[in-house]
């Protein structure tokens, strides 16, 4: 239904007013995300870390969020002396890109500053975690294709009969590669449930206590950036697993899940 001229003018004025009242960073994020990202980087370079953080957070709410954006937000928060939140965003960057070397390096800087607790991953699991699921699937596909083409060549291409031994070796190598990739995917899927429950202590002065009551005994102090595994949530309290095989209750507002990306679920502050 078309608006009459008498109603159209007030409607346009109202739309213009709403647009003007939107924060500048939000308007930039909606209409020009690349420009908003560049302006946020310029704010950071000028030392205006608060403005840079606000702009990065606005962009993080959009579907265009990336590991680089999360990394930059972590840098701004670290400069604002909020190391726990910085560690959270570095880990979110690594969740999107497990081989983001700069994010991993800056996590170590935060650890030196706060001495946070962390679940140690050793051996083959530490190596496997450096590759994303998509990369393991790609290697699996290549291995299967090599095996299938080699076996097909043995039985179909007569000109390659003299190369049968080499083709069987190639087929065996392809199957072995595919089998190793399938095993790697299985190991990653087994640890996925743990990573989905991984949380980070974002606040200073946090601690774990023996029960969800104000006067409970302290289990351990939790420096900002510490990793925890969420086991149960009960109102304002969260029951967690703590590195070094400890358990305790922590105030929920002191935590944020690594996988609660802001585009789908707002961050707990």
Structure commentary:
This protein is an alpha+beta fold. It has helices at 5-21, 24-31, 33-45, 49-60, 67-79, 83-96, 101-114, 123-128, 133-156, 164-196; strands spanning 198-201, 206-209, 218-222, 227-234, 237-242, 246-251, 255-257. The protein has a five-stranded antiparallel sheet.
* Percent of residues in beta strands: 5-15%
Low-confidence stretches: 1-30, 264-269
The largest beta-sheet arranges its strands as 6-5-4-1-7
User: What pattern of helices and strands is seen along the backbone?
Assistant: HHHHHHHHHHEEEEEEE
Give the helix/strand class.
Answer: alpha+beta
Oligomer: single chain
The structural domain count equals 3
Count the DSSP helices.
10
The profile of the biggest β sheet is: 5 strands, antiparallel
What is this entry, summarized?
The chain is α+β, with helices and mostly antiparallel strands and 269 residues long. The protein is 57% helix and 13% strand.
Secondary structure blueprint with pairings:
Layout: H1 5-21, H2 24-31, H3 33-45, H4 49-60, H5 67-79, H6 83-96, H7 101-114, H8 123-128, H9 133-156, H10 164-196, E1 198-201, E2 206-209, E3 218-222, E4 227-234, E5 237-242, E6 246-251, E7 255-257
Antiparallel strand pairs: 1-4, 1-7, 2-3, 4-5, 5-6
Features:
269 residues, alpha+beta, Serine Threonine Protein Phosphatase 5, Tetratricopeptide repeat, SH3 type barrels, 3 domains, five-stranded antiparallel beta sheet, 57% helix, disordered C terminus
């Amino acid at each position: 239904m078309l608006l009459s001229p008498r109603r159209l003018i007030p409607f346009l004025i109202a739309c213009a007013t709403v647009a003007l009242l939107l924060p500048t960073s939000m308007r930039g994020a909606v209409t020009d995300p690349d420009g908003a990202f560049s302006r946020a980087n310029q704010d950071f370079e000028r030392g205006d870390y608060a403005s840079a953080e606000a702009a990065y957070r606005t962009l993080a709410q959009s579907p265009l969020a990336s590991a680089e954006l999360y990394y930059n937000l972590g840098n701004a928060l670290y400069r604002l002396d909020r190391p726990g939140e910085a560690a959270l965003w570095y880990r979110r960057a690594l969740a999107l890109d497990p081989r983001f070397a700069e994010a991993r390096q800056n996590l170590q800087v935060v650890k030196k500053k706060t001495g946070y607790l962390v679940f140690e991953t050793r051996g083959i699991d530490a190596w496997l975690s450096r590759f994303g699921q998509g990369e393991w699937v790609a290697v699996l596909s290549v291995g299967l294709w090599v095996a299938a083409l080699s076996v097909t060549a043995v039985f179909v291409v007569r000109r390659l009969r003299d190369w049968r031994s080499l083709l069987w070796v190639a087929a065996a190598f392809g199957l072995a590669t595919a089998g190793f990739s399938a095993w790697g995917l299985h190991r990653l899927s087994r640890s996925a449930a743990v990573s989905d429950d991984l949380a980070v202590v974002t606040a200073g002065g946090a601690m774990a206590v023996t029960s969800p009551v104000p006067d409970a005994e302290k289990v351990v102090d939790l420096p900002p950036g510490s990793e925890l595994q969420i086991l149960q949530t009960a109102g304002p309290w969260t029951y967690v697993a703590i590195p070094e095989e400890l358990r305790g209750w922590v105030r929920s507002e002191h935590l944020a899940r690594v996988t609660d990306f802001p585009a789908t679920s707002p961050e707990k502050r």
